[in-house]
Amino acid sequence: MSHAPMPDAERLAEPMRSRWSPSVFDARHVIGDADVETLLTAAVWAPSAGNSQPWRFVVAPRGSAAHTAFVPHLSRGNSGWVPRASLVLVAGCEVVDVKDADTARYDLGQAAAHVTLQAVAMGLHAHQFGGFDKDAAAVALGVPAHVRLMAGIAVGVRGDPAEVPERDREREHRERARRPLGEVAMGLGWQPWRP
Amino acid sequence: MSHAPMPDAERLAEPMRSRWSPSVFDARHVIGDADVETLLTAAVWAPSAGNSQPWRFVVAPRGSAAHTAFVPHLSRGNSGWVPRASLVLVAGCEVVDVKDADTARYDLGQAAAHVTLQAVAMGLHAHQFGGFDKDAAAVALGVPAHVRLMAGIAVGVRGDPAEVPERDREREHRERARRPLGEVAMGLGWQPWRP
């Protein structure tokens, strides 16, 4: 099983260096309200276009009414591992003006990254996921029409792989690989950037 | 002038705690290739849906051909402060399948957040901006049609406010404020979340 930091990621500062997305959470760990508040505070201090702050979160700690309402809408692949996490933040963006919708999604991604990195700095892990029925979850949670759900963020501490089914254990064995910089970083004329 | 950490942001871990977006960069500072490579490495180690890694960056250090091609397309408000930064990363996302476009923008936002936070950890600052002519910049830079430009990330070290026009100096005086958590964090039925 290969966790962070991977080669190349070793040069990064914490908490970017050690971030990775476990799929085995400790189903007995309970997250305190103060920690939830700190994670949300990290989200709101992300930057956004014109300080528009389009991010919204449904806060669903395991055992809460929001968690119970959300869980049935997980995809089959996510229905095993997500409910073991201590907390799910269901992340959406307010789309008031359709022309700002693309930027709102970009900004929501930034806020999700800040939550995820703050979690790592606190000794927690976060694993984001898109696999849930967004329309049905919005209805179940009472999310208004001008907020579009985009992703879930499962937060918790890592659990014992022996306690979960093979399928969820396997998920963590997937190779953590990235495209080489030459496919992602370009110079003028879309030629691979070379330092 | 109020910089980070603001009240509430004080509870965050570094580098989220100290991140802010200066508008006065030191026009004499030169960023080294190794630092550029580290920033890009932070971007590619961001998480993305199914590890799709839709982010693409045009790398434009001050003085490069890409920088010269990009700068004329800045909005009037950004034309003064952005070119003083040591580096501009012009960020876009690959949109192959239109149904994945929303997620690609969310994932690009995450990568931009990772770049920005890595910059802070390295003693640099990053200030993202959307104000440039995306279509014209794409043509000037040779960005292919399946990549949509979304934002610029200006990176550098903070400069002397006395060296810039009043308008750019003023930009940093804007109050750094955020919505209260009760407007952003909700429970079941879209009621403000209370810890």
Describe this structure in words.
The structure is a homodimer of 195-residue chains. Chain A is 27% helix and 16% strand. With 195 residues, chain A is of the alpha+beta class. Chain A has one domain: NADH Oxidase (3-Layer(aba) Sandwich), CATH 3.40.109.10. The first copy, chain A, has a 4-stranded antiparallel sheet with strand order 1-2-4-3, sandwiched between helices. The longest helix of chain A is centred in the middle third of the chain and has 21 residues, at 101-121. Chain A is globular and about 50 Å long. Chain A starts with 32 loop residues before the first helix and ends in a 9-residue tail after the last strand.
Could you give a quick summary of the protein structure above?
The structure is a homodimer of 195-residue chains. The first copy, chain A, has 195 residues and is an alpha+beta fold.
The spatial strand order of the largest sheet of chain A comes to 1-2-4-3
What are the segments of chain A in which pLDDT stays under 50 over at least 5 consecutive residues? none
- Give me the Rg of chain A, rounded: 18 Å
What is the name of the CATH architecture of chain A? 3-Layer(aba) Sandwich
**H/E element string of chain A?**
HEHEHEHEHE
Described by its quaternary structure, the protein is homodimer
Structural class of chain A: alpha+beta
Q: Could you name the CATH topology of chain A? A: NADH Oxidase
Number of helices of chain A: 5
Largest interface: A-B, 75 and 75 residues
Domains counted in the coordinates of chain A: how many? 1
SS strand fraction of chain A = 15-25%
So what's the CATH class of chain A?
A: Alpha Beta
State the share of residues found in helices of chain A, binned by percent.
25-40%
What is the CATH superfamily label of chain A?
A: NADH Oxidase
> Count the strands of chain A?
5
* Average predicted confidence as pLDDT of chain A: 94
Shape of chain A: globular
Distance between the termini of chain A: 32 Å
